[in-house]
Specification:
The chain is mostly beta strands. The chain is 4% helix and 50% strand. It is built from one helix and 34 strands. The strands form eight sheets. Strands 1, 2, 3, 6, 7, 10, 11, 12, 13, 14 and 15 form an eleven-stranded antiparallel sheet that branches. A five-stranded mixed sheet has the order 17-23-22-19-20, with no helix packed on it. A hairpin with a 5-residue loop joins strand 8 and strand 9. It is elongated, with a radius of gyration of 33 Å.
Amino acid sequence: MYRIRHLLLLLTVLFAGYNVQAQTQSPYKYDFNSPIDTSDPEFAPLGWGHIVDAMVVRSNTYYVQYAYQATGGVDDSGCLHIGSQTVTDSLTQTQTLNDILVLPPVGGTVTVDVKALNYGSDIKFYYVNFEDGKFTTDGLIDMPVPELSEDRFCTITVPEMAEGTYIGIRGNSVLIDNVTATTAEVTPLPRMKVLKVSDGNPEYVDAASDGNFTLNYSVQLRNNGQRDLKVGDENYSLSLVNTTLNNRVVGTTAMTEDLALGAETTATLTVTLPYASYPKNYAYAVRDNLTGELTPCGERQAYPYEPVATMLDRSGKPVGDAIDLGIVQGEVTYSYLLRNDGATPLDITNVSMTGGFSTAFKAQQVAPHAALTFPITFGQVGTENQGTLTLETNSGTVEIALSATSVAANEMYANFENGKMPAGYIVGESWFISDFPPAGQPPQQHLLRPGAV
């Protein structure tokens, strides 16, 4: 009883929002005597739905194959060919799918004429729910199904259903014809499909002086439903979803033009967000609100309306609040990068170092998103040396702890920076000089490593 009431409530909401009058057909019959275009994997007969399943292998997608047949049905009339639910990429990948056609909400007795295509043919029937534009299965209907024949159609009767019940048909290598019900509410379903999302954002998405940033996407759409879409139709809109934050909807744009059945259009989705609420790198997706389907549109990092000083190593990794030059002998200089990760200029007003460390970097301005070479030199003899790098900027003072371990000139020391073995070294054939991490990065990067045995 809960399922029945739940479905009736959903139907009330659904049909109230479609701006299209549901047509009650008593009795109901779909005889497949009119052609159906099955080229779109999401196709459905008029008033029906479709729960699409697929196997994805690398860049290829494999679906259950459907085809309309003008002959071959009952009395050689039209029928629908449903292919195997087991799909293969013709190489090594095989998967059994659960691709289901959904009848319009029906009531009373439901029948389907079915014919097997091969020895493995079968058909199953499911309860189906409809919510937020999506069909989902709600359990297999417990019912006897007669043995299917390759020679003739047999009529399968589904147990009597309360009015407003959705039923799903999972055909596997069968022909179906003459779907009937005591009553059905037939409403052409509104649908749209996102074909392509183009990122219309600049390389760096900067917050403005009010602390907000804007994301822009161009969305190519097609009306792949069963009726024209009209401005003002419920859920005829697009939303930008933050998939990093559990599919949080961050903005919605209503469609501003009608879209005829089968037609395509391009819509602009623009969303303005506060940087304070979205300060990190996030993944986003476009959601069409008729079906709830998500189309990924990549990751985006916004930048604050202020200067931000970030010290990086040569690989582009932030050093945090400490830099260790490792083991050194004599005077050495390692190059880092000072980057401005803000949307306004970074003014370096003073640079100072302690503990025997020094730099040739001078006070200057760093443009937004620019990165300048920042050399650090050390040449003091001592076992362990500690110091501090202090940057005074228009965004505040930055302090980074510095450290290095130095050895005296008369001590044995080799760092392999010249790519050669020091004189007197004896090494086996399985040892070689590696330049990983990249040359110029502390600690010493040319290491003596054993090779593969």
